[in-house]
């Protein structure tokens, strides 16, 4: 009995020894959930554009609506010096013209009469001049009284004045021998109004042409009440026109109204800008007003709202760090940061929503 049990125990020990001597099966090691080395960097699949934070001056105070207009001195009326009939019209509304370019041809009767008056005045001046010289010589010789020579000289001065008057009238409209006069553009610009047609009449009281200068423009601005105390003449402005115009157009505040409109709770202001592609009178635009402080600028789309604070994502090696920031101003596609970021740091300028969602997990 005891021998049989001993034999059975030895057999079991031998079998266990053989099993232990066998090579271990190669099974894949279990991965722990949440191990970054196992899962990889979750942002590697995102095509994240970056932007470098930079220090800027003229911090934007805000963006306001505006309307492009012409300055008062930019519109010039072209009038006819004499009434007459329109022979030809050379331009149409909207046409660009150079200074001195012909706008229309008018024939009038007055210039013909003025030409005759001028010829008679010149003849009379020649006669009175010769008489004044002759009487002056006789007065010097004592043949006649000096008073008669003085009268002759006075008559000559009157004749000279008449000649000068008729010469000015004749030159006023550059009148030709047939009484035609050419109306010309006094400035370079755009023909804003044509009020005559061939065969019609023209008088001296209405303007047959109006030319608008295109060298400078103004913008009428509506400042909200919160900006009324901050905006002053001399501050710089920028307006982005979009389309094919990539660079913003710059200008300057020239006037700010002293009171707030009680109906709109806004303050009217005016800025001057130069001519540029896309700058057209009557166009509505958004204008960014630039202050005189300094800050850190990043693309506006790099800033996102998380909770009740603005944040940016700052690159730290291969990772992105969520960073709360204080926004001083927005405008012109930029956000100016007054606290939370330093110049030279790199922020995410795209895929911000994805980074925000990953950070919330």
UniProtKB/TrEMBL annotation:
SUPFAM superfamilies: HlyD-like secretion proteins. Residues 219-276 form the CusB-like beta-barrel domain. Residues 296-350 form the CzcB-like C-terminal circularly permuted SH3-like domain. Keywords: Coiled coil, Signal, Transport. GO terms for cellular component: membrane; outer membrane-bounded periplasmic space. GO terms for molecular function: transition metal ion binding; transmembrane transporter activity. Residues 135-169 form a coiled coil. Residues 1-26 form the signal peptide. InterPro entries: Beta-barrel_RND_2, CzcB_C, MFP_Cation_Efflux, RND_pump_MFP. One of its GO terms (biological process) is copper ion export. Belongs to the membrane fusion protein (MFP) (TC 8.A.1) family. NCBIfam families: RND_mfp. This is RND family efflux transporter MFP subunit. It comes from Erythrobacter dokdonensis DSW-74.
